[in-house]
């Protein structure tokens, strides 16, 4: 069931990047961003969208047709490829005992009992050839927390402004490098225990990626005890501001948007979805009650903040106005003011949605694709992909095509638009947990064992 509020907005067509976000990117991506740029989780503005020309529809792993290169990466990591010009950056964590993953739809909450020595690495690859240009051993020790059977100790994606590169390893620390692999600074943030709040011993591994804003690194750390949102100086790692959050462990990445009084940060949450002043950390709005393991990143388009989550029964999709202030929870009873529309049962558990050509695409954990009119909230269709296996990686879109990776090692290519059309199903033979990147017509896919560059 969907509860909709008709809205009248100026932006009803293509994906709109807020003017402040565009200005922020121009300021921060210094030196000037090269054409091949995917500088953070989900690319520019975390939108998951590439508008740079034709992209591949089909490929064949057995014959090599369309596969430009393949590079094995040891250990485990769900961090997505991040690209600046001809360089691709990725992280991994290598265990002396257990480097296995268990994909699929199951409900086992128990962590992997691996207390062996681990090595966290940062890799730089040549984006055109897949050659490893350099690698750095960032830290080696026994992890401070455990991980889930689907998770890794290198889940967050790095972020870069073209000069500095920031890697987040949760309880193992925050690290800054230059693009040649020289360490600039480190910061220990303490034990960041993310897991199931109802069963504290079920530790699952930290996953929220850092983002950049006006020379600061923004970190969302919703954990078992002492959740916070904070800003650290990109120059030296010094704390700029820190705001306490009264929430249980959540797993999403924050997003920047233009608020009613200037730049703001949106975060997903269970007890506290919310907006914060990006320069001070002051709270702007909040919304509580939803899926109790929030993972998707908020998406900004059409002067709306799209937030979805699922688990424990509720599975909402919210479209919240960027002008929102105050406590919005009461609005869900029907008196809409700051909530443009919401759907009660179509939300995503793991994958971050995206907006493309005026439509909102939501991929549920059982590989059901739900598509809405992004402005009105009208649900246009709901279709199952393949055999309905598990989907953790977030989709990306380009060239009128939606790419949806699955844990079964397939990438579904769906034609964008108001009606469902499956263009292709491409196998990559290994599970995919990380969200792909798109640059210069290439689809960059990280599987459980390697990085692939796929072209036309």
Task: Kindly describe this structure.
With 456 residues, the chain is mostly beta strands. The protein has one domain (2-454): YVTN repeat-like/Quinoprotein amine dehydrogenase (Methylamine Dehydrogenase, Chain H, 7 Propeller). It is 2% helix and 39% strand. The strands form nine sheets. A five-stranded antiparallel sheet has the order 1-27-25-24-23, with no helix packed on it. The longest helix has 10 residues, at 19-28. It starts with a strand and ends with a strand.
How would you summarize the topology of this molecule?
Blueprint: E1 2-4, H1 19-28, E2 37-38, E3 49-50, E4 67-72, E5 82-84, E6 87-95, E7 111-112, E8 118-126, E9 132-141, E10 147-148, E11 159-160, E12 164-168, E13 174-178, E14 183-187, E15 211-213, E16 216-221, E17 228-233, E18 239-244, E19 255-259, E20 262-267, E21 273-277, E22 283-287, E23 299-301, E24 304-308, E25 317-321, E26 326-327, E27 339-343, E28 354-356, E29 359-363, E30 368-373, E31 379-384, E32 396-398, E33 401-405, E34 410-415, E35 422-427, E36 437-439, E37 442-446, E38 450-454
Parallel strand pairs: 3-32, 22-26
Antiparallel strand pairs: 1-27, 2-5, 4-38, 5-6, 6-8, 7-10, 8-9, 11-12, 12-13, 13-14, 15-16, 16-17, 17-18, 19-20, 20-21, 21-22, 23-24, 24-25, 25-27, 28-29, 29-30, 30-31, 32-33, 33-34, 34-35, 36-37, 37-38
